[in-house]
Amino acid sequence: MIFPIVEVCNNNFTVRRATKTDIAEIVYALIQLIPIGYVTTYSDIANTIGVSPRYVANILKENKNPIAIPCHRVIKSGGKIGGYTLNGKRADQFKEKLLMLESLGKSPYRIRIDILIFMNSSKDTTYSQR
User: pTM (2 decimals)?
Assistant: First the structure.
C-alpha cells in the first residue's frame, strides 16, 4: 500500500509518498508500544499500516538500535519465534532467550498491535493528588 505523508513546516503543507524510511519509523514506533512480556506478529503490524509482513520483517532486520526498539517482541503468526539479526548476524536463539527472560520463564503473552494503539490513545493523562 502506498500512503501519503503530510509534512507541515511554517504553515506550509506538503503531501508526498511514504518512503521506506518513513515506514520504518512507523514500524519502530509501534514496536516501542509492546510491553515487556508481550509479543505481537509481523502480520499484525503489517495489517495495521497496510504493508506486507515480509516488508515489516525486512525493516526489523535493519534495526540499528535493538535496545530502544525491541524488535525481538515480534514473532511469526503461527507462534514461532522467527528470525533475529544482531550486529548483522543471525541470533535466533538470543531472541528466544530475551523473550523468556522478559516473560519470567513463561511463554510471552500475545497482544494485537491495533489494540495497543487504542489503549495508548485512550489513556487518561490527568493525575490527581492524594
Answer: 0.78
